[in-house]
Batch of 3 targets.
Target 1
Amino acid sequence: MSDSVLDDRLAASIREHRLAAALSLDALAERAGVSRAMLSRIERGESSPTAQLLNRLCGGLGISLSALFAAAEAPETPIARRAEQPVWRDPASGYLRRAVSPPRASVSLVEVVFPAGGTVAFDPLPAPAPEQQVWVLDGALDLTLGQAAPVRLLAGDCLWMRLDAPIRFHNPTLRETRYLVALSRGAGA
């Protein structure tokens, strides 16, 4: 799936979630802390939002980023062939996100390729906050959850966390880091 097709589907998914929640553009913009103009451009497919901005919109909608992507991805099927897995690049950090799981799976698996020196931060998700595991496949990753000290993960390390505090991902190395995120699609996911 091309970036432009996924961007169009994300735009439609945001609009559908907003309308399903009976929120006006102004109401969602206020809840998410974004401008109405930016939200309108995103919904019309005129702006490619960053991961951070998508996360803020999801917070305003009361859904997870994973749920937003699942709604925008391919039709329900029990198999997700690599060639058909949706891939999205964050225009701000440059990280590449590949949705590995079929949309109907109860656990969302996401492969991330994070550029050397890259950083991205997310706001906490609304209650009940889903659980997430991060498993580093190659490279290193510094994770900061809330006010806690950063945790360095190396290849093979896996960290469990609840997404109820701000989180910051940072690749401290001079090469790409590749990791897998496993997120429950249960309540709030």
Target 2
Amino acid sequence: MQARKKTEEKRSKILDTALSLVTKNGLHGISMKMIANEANIAAGTIYVHFTNKEEMLASVYEMITLQINQLVKEHYDENSPFKKNFLNIWNAILKAYLADRRIPDFITQYAFVEGASSGISDMLEPVYQLLEEARRDQVVKDIPIAGLIALTHGPITGLVRMIGVTKGLLKEIDVDMYAQSCWDAISNKED
């Protein structure tokens, strides 16, 4: 039991280190050796957990999507209108991204790597399913799910980046107004 816990801790440390280094150096600017050095582990230890860099990066992405899916579950109330759920989830994701700004940086980089994005819709199935239901019920515009995500997720990551480089911006902005603006971009109905 203790050995298993240590193995999981090492795996988590590798993923966390990779997340930090990707944010700092980009996906193509890191190597397994860099990750090992930064994590203070032997390079071979990484290969006990992952066959290659691509598998390790996919695991980082999976770790992040599990967190996002958990946020969706926690902030979705099937008895509430879709708009209220959307605003709650949007705000929860923004807060999570502000708490760990590495996450939106990694997602932005990883989502556009050729071949890496093939499993993205599978990993974010709860998000895709909610948007698909809203589209089917004509609550949101009839545009591809990827477009709906771009109109709602892109502004979150942009806002996090702006807050990261502009001191005090978070105090100046009305987060609810930004969430409402994203809702207005995809909504099929006037409020």
Target 3
Amino acid sequence: MSCNCNCCCDEEETVVAKVGQPAPAFTMKTTADLEKLSSTASLSDYEGKWLVLFFWPLDFTFVCPTEITALSDRQKEFAELGAEILGVSTDSVYSHRAWIKTPRDQHGLGNVNFPLASDNTHTVSADYGVLIEDQGIALRGLFIIDPKGILQYAVINNLNIGRSVDETLRVLEALQTGGLCPADWKPGMKTL
């Protein structure tokens, strides 16, 4: 994206995701077609749906598979709430495929109930503010985007801390109430 400041600079403007603003657009290759690896995912594909977009640092590591498999095991709960899940790292779709084809008991993922996307250009990770540039990997970012493409929730953890599926579901349901949800609100409780 070029600078629009009408000055003489040739600097590039960095898009950084901000809650309450339109989510940065993206298009990435995914594992949706695990054999051909020819599928892509774009933000526009999720128009009219809730999207849980999450980033992890590297395939074949230790904390990452616990998060991906936990989300995969509970994907139906997200689907019941009208939400889809898309996972992203800076690894290639070929690495993702190898990790999916490796059984869980051998430190792989096994079957995953949502696509994994490749941000090998690092553009999407940078746009969402999770790129560690000098390492070429992403922090553990999780974003909830509403059906109109507005970023409603963002949380970023450092590399060694996994995220909570329960908390992600709780926040998604709170957002869907459209109301004011007090501290420790849980589904079924009254809003303010």
